[in-house]
Write a structure and sequence with these properties.
The complex is a heterodimer of chains A (448) and B (421). With 448 residues, chain A is mainly β. Helices cover 13% and strands 38% of the residues of chain A. Chain A starts with a helix and ends with a strand. Chain B is mainly beta and 421 residues long. A 14-stranded antiparallel barrel of chain B has the order 2-3-4-6-7-8-9-12-13-15-16-17-18-19.
Chain lengths: 448, 421
Amino acid sequence: MFLQKVYQPFIRLLIILMVTGLVNSCSSKNQDLQFSGGKNLIKSDMQISIVDTLSLSMSTVQIDSLVTTGRDTLLVGQYVDDRLGKVEAQSYFRVLLPSLTADSKDVFDSMTLIMKPNGYYYGDTTLTQQLTVYRLAEGLNLATGEDFYNTSSRMAYLENPLGVINFKPQPKSNTKIEIKLDQSLGQMLFDMMVEKNISLTNIDNFLEFFKGIMVMPTGNPQGAVVGYTMSDSVLLMRMYAHANLEERVNKHFDFTAETGTYHFSRITHDRTGTKLSGLVSQDKSVPSAETDHEVYLQGGTGLVPALKIPYLGKILELDNTVILKAELILKPVINTYNHSLMPVTISYFSSNTENQLIRAYADPNTGAVLYGGLMLTDPVYDEGTYYRFDITPFVKEQLANNYYTGKTGLMFFYRTPTFSTSVNRLVLGDGNHPTQKAMLKLYLLHYE
Amino acid sequence: MNKSIKITYFTYWFGLVLSLMQLSENASAQNYTYSAYSAFGLGLLENNGITENFGMGTAGIALPSERYLNTLNPASFSSIDSTSFIFEVGAFGKYSKLESQGTSLNKLGASVRYIALGFKVAKWWGIAGGLAPFSTRGYTIVNIYPTDGYNDTYQSTITGSGSINRAYIGNAFRPFKNLSIGFNASYLFGSLEQTEQITYSAINYYGMNIVNSNHFNNFTFDAGVQYKATFGIHTILAGVTYNPSQNLSVRTNKLVVNSPDTLQNDRSVYTSFSLPAAAGIGLGYYWKDQVKVFADYTFQQWSKTNYHYVVAQLTDSRQYNFGIEYAPERRINTGYWNAVEYRAGFRHEDSYLVMSGTQIKESAISLGLSLPLRNQFSKINVSAEFGQQGTLVNQLIKESYIRFTIGLTLRDRWAPRPRYD
């Protein structure tokens, strides 16, 4: 047909156009890069530069109180740090009634406290540690909306210890520790159970009678803080007994820990004699110049580094310039850390002049909260270990109205492990540290 | 419906599709141009012609529109056969090898090139109109720059794109036998863009780019005259064209984006760009209806325009075109290949661009064929140009290319009626 004769070449032409269009669009990227033609003829209107000379004002701040209510880790132990003084962790919890009861033919043997490490520790676990168990004299009660805090919450306990253990902690081994408790208390609870005393049949009466347990470190202050699992299966007070039938039958009755709200770790510090001894309230801070150009981060006790960028406003004086990225580098001071005990991620928040937190920042594209990560470029020679933070949204926010107050700063917390249930210590250099300088890298784009 | 009406419908339909393709292609900023030279002035100026012209060195200022629409001179439209209309459509494919400073790059591009339609209103009056590119821009420059003070680099990609199109209507009149006068009223429209984008691995989520776009439009006019005198088997032809200096209005937009923020958006700054005065003269000779020879000279006075670039100056451009067409029989009766028209030509241009003190020149030889379809009026036309533009001196760019054009000339009767010649 005549029509087909007209059609066909044009259909072919269309196909050629499409195919060549595709070839053109997908084949040339790398070639363009290598081809020199035009590079000297057509001028770039944009340049990138990096500014890393803005001075940083750093200090250490003491957070007043950290909530430690109902965490799934209980911390017990103590250690002394040459820079930050002594840290001590005590655990408070209460136990519930066993599901079975002893009968009159049973004979009481002994009572123990069983605890299981959860793998967390900080300090020296090669040293013998002493733990002492006390009976609480005061109930672990909270009004609605209240919390237990790391340092401010404390409960009275009876002076006579229920038990003591001396041991070398093996936090990674999964081995439970068992502490023998006072024999007379055990006998008394057993007798009351046999008698079906209301204090051992009704839970409210029991918690009134046996208000709870506190475990604290005693003895040598140099040691480790170890985490124990807060779970009714591995944290319990066990009563051993036997029945004399045709043959001896061993029994035990478990007063398991109450999970949920009514337990906490009390973490205290004693900074007497250190450079931070004057640091008592959150609105105060100790400048890094007074602490050998170091700032400190210690979970549990609430010691955090704070940063201000006094001259960030200088960027506003540059015409046709925009901040592409702001990257903060914080370096740990050599010989103050052990890689395995370093926090893996560190979160940051903006803070006001009273060192109160304002907010966290998110990646504008993904919405994910931004935090700093540990970078290990050479773990063998211990070089190039640092934390890197993308603080672009913070910097952009501070300069958003073309006006910089300099009043808002940043504060840094552990993200992993959890800040309130860890006592890891990190020593970071400030902007003037002789070797481990903190640095703000501003990636600037100039355009014409 | 008879065949010729079918063809007519087909033609309109096809013309519409191709125009849409052309427009969408401009919008998506992909065209066949790939030259850093197109960054300056109005980009690379396109020869105003059709496949038949391109087959013979784009010569033909003196050529009447006897068998196809000669868009090189509006005066030619009065020569359209009074009983038919002519539809022209064509597309380009270009394969280039670019060389500069010891590196090279191969590029393949294609684009719809032109559509045009012409017919006779009266024996002394012909009209034609169409759409074709006036100038094009296209390039990608990738540079790696060091980041200040750090052992680090980033990449800048500068992309040029866009085109200025020309929609025109031409009227040609024949006040005396052998003399024809024509005028084109054109509307130039389109935009030329340059986008620079920075890629930097250290910056993983903030995209940066600067987009400079210039939107051009205005009406322009040009005129032409053709003269033809026949002495037995010899015919002498002459033609001139003239474009007065005219202004294009330009709307300039500059957009600086650091995603998701817009840093600068200078909208709609109006300026104007003056098009230079241009004149062309062409001569032709026919031996019978079989051998046709053309020679053109065109001059554009860019030196009078006032543009300054750091690396480029504009100067007067001169173009020389020579072409020959040979048609053995113009009838299919004695064998198909006797009805084919054969063309060859040569052109040379000293362009309006002086880069680093060196004027950019272009030369090409060309070959072409017109293959008649069965009704003998309509033809498929092909042409190939083998050309070279630019130079390697002063770190400039030399482009060697083969450009194929395929076009369709459709001629049909207004209405089937007996002819009395």
